[in-house]
Amino acid sequence: MDNPGRFEAVIGLEVHAQLATASKIFCGCRVEFGAPPNSLTCPVCQGLPGALPVLNKRAVEFAVRLVLATGGTVNQRSVFARKNYFYPDLPKGYQISQYEAPLGIGGRLKIPSTSEDVNKVVRLKRVHLEEDAGKSLHPETGEYQTRIDLNRCGTPLIEIVTEPEIRTPREAYEYLVMLKQILQYLEICTGDMEKGHLRCDANISVKPADSSEFGTRTELKNLNSFRWVERALAYEIDRQTQTIVAGRKVEQMTLLWNEKKQIAEPMRSKEESHDYRYFPEPDLVNLVIDDVWLAKLKSNLPELPEQKAARFVKQFQIPEYDAGVLTSSRGLADYYETVMRNYTDGKTASNWVMTEIMRVLNEEKSDIESFRLKPEATAELLNLIKDGTVSGKIAKEIFAEMLATGKSASEILSAKGLTQISDSTLINEIIERVLTQDRENLKKYLSGKTQIFGHFVGAVMKETKGKANPALVNKLLKEKLDALAR
Q1: Are the CB atoms for 430 and 405 separated by under 8 Å?
Q2: 112 and 163, same structural domain?
Q3: Contact, 123 vs 12, CB < 8 A?
Q4: How many domains does the chain have?
Q5: Are residues 55 and 109 in the same domain?
Q6: By mean pLDDT, which of 36-40, 93-97, 325-329, 476-480 is the weakest?
Q7: What is the pLDDT of residue 72?
Q8: Measured between alpha carbons, how far is residue 453 from residues 270, 391, 465, 477 in Å?
Q9: What is the tens place of the pLDDT at every residue in 177-190?
Q10: Half-sphere exposure (CA, 13 Å, Cβ side) for 141?
Q11: Is 4's pLDDT higher than 60?
């Protein structure tokens, strides 16, 4: 490739987030993943003649929350439109969406920059409400056929569209992580990509780095994994760059990412807004949001990740890095905060959550919501360390036993006799015995080889089967050896 560094990618993302409402956006059908095919439908979401849509107020509330949380402007009068296209899983032949007058405009998300040691701001262009289509299934039965499941028809979505100012695949990844985090904090979307609750389309073009004019863009469609987004964008940037370097034109088209082959494959020529023949939805009046309701929604916004992380640093005296990790999901932040209602050392608690607890979550590919130990149980264990009842090493053994049995730390401590030895007289007796039995190393230490101090600490801990208070062992052993060296 001829100097690819002189080219720059221009990326804009369109994210569809499924709103966590109990019912669909224009009818009363239940929203549920995994129900039997076509069991959650009615004349409205089936698109039968004469059936009229009625807007779900909860869906509007959820969408407004996101606009407010990202600093956007809520259009207090927005308009629904018909987006016309013909797929087998779209029974009406159009999708009810918003076009010229969306619910929200503007807003921004801060993400870690990949090129500088500062945060980058990604501006949002619009946030609008729409309904989802059904799902086409292609069973591997040996013969070509398509089955249609309309359960998803009418599921409420918000589409979040960025300005075209993301420049690298990594920035796109960071943006999606941050967006998912905010959606979950607002409790308006689960973010479960395996269930299709969060899906991403990416528009991408490549231009000379010193040019202000964008190149021909392509669209990567239906990316349902953040890693897929990153890999697909990297592939397409490289493909477009090589095309330009070779003197050929980039063709405008829609692409699908083939994860198995690690390539983007053409789906169709790219569609523009006029292809959808938008016009106002005649069966729905304009959506009007009054000042009182808007003010109420704004006042009820929850504490967002950035705010919570700043508070954790100040309130619990932990580093910014720890606060960032602990607030990466609302569930993890809530777990840590509940631990801290029953414990006082913020840094020790953050260490345990980020190492021991998150290690288990990673090993089990689980999340904090399904973690077997309640935060109160973790706090009880940490308090046993703090008051000297158990050592850190023994605490890890108790922690493993708690996970395996569901018993509390105090129950395991009592049953196994794991209480830490903090009796100075008993520890001094053990130190005396260790030094008497290891006179050769004692002579080395007294002759100046003080680096073997740890050897004696280990021997004492072994004699006590790890139960001795380590800090006390170090103190008493140092006093004894200093006395012998005089």
Answers
A1: no
A2: yes
A3: no
A4: 3
A5: yes
A6: 476-480
A7: 97
A8: 72, 20, 19, 9
A9: 999 999 999 999 99
A10: 8
A11: no
Whether 275 and 384 map to the same domain: the answer is no
**Six token digits for residue 455:** 């050897």
CA atoms within 13 A on the CB side of 53: 29
Adjacent-strand bridge partners of 208:
7
54, part of any domain: yes
At 12, list the tokens: 């804009």
Whether 278 and 352 map to the same domain: the answer is no
Q: How high is the pLDDT of residue 390?
A: 80
Domain span at residue 462?
424-485
Q: Is residue 473 part of a domain?
A: yes
Report how far Cα 481 is from the mean position of its chain's Cα atoms: 53
Is the confidence at residue 151, as pLDDT, over 90? yes
Find out whether 107 and 72 touch, Cβ atoms under 8 Å.
yes
* 147 lies in the same domain as 229: yes
Same structural domain, 395 and 431:
no
Only one residue has tokens 């840094």, namely: 347
If asked whether residues 204 and 266 sit together in one domain, one would say yes
Q: Do the domain assignments include residue 298?
A: no
What pLDDT does 419 receive?
A: 66
Per-residue pLDDT of 94-130, as tens digits, reads 999 999 999 999 999 999 765 555 679 999 999 999 9
DSSP strand pairing (7-18 vs 198-208) = antiparallel
pLDDT score recorded for residue 241: 94
Place of tokens 């779900």: 56
pLDDT at 341 over 60: yes
Mean per-residue pLDDT over the chain, rounded: 90
DSSP code at position 100: S
CB atoms within 10 A of CB 18: 24
Burial 67-83 (b: 16+ CB within 10 A, else e): bbbbebebbeebbbbbb
What's residue 3's pLDDT?
47
Q: Do 115 and 239 have their domain in common?
A: yes
Q: Measure CA of the first residue to CA of the last residue in the chain; give whole Å.
A: 73
DSSP secondary-structure letter at 395? Answer: H
The rounded distance, in Å, linking the Cα atoms of 26 and 44 is 7
Closest CA to 183 of 330, 312, 36, 294: 330
Q: Among residues of the chain, what percentage have pLDDT more than 70?
A: 94
Of 269, 292, 315, the position where a domain reaches its end is: 292
**Boundary of a domain, candidates 292, 324, 351:** 292
pLDDT tens for each residue of 284-317 = 999 999 999 999 999 999 999 999 999 999 999 9
Any domain includes 297: no
Query: If residue 8 lies in a helix (H) or strand (E), which one and from where to where?
Result: strand 7-18
Bridge partners (DSSP) listed for residue 192: none
Tokens of 136: 């086409």
The set of residues, in sequence order, having a beta carbon less than 8 Å from that of 237 and lying 6+ positions away, is 9, 169, 204, 206
pLDDT at 141: 62
Rounded Cα gap, residues 115 and 167, in angstroms: 10
Residue 2 has pLDDT above 80, yes or no: no
Q: 27, 45 in Cβ contact below 8 A? A: yes
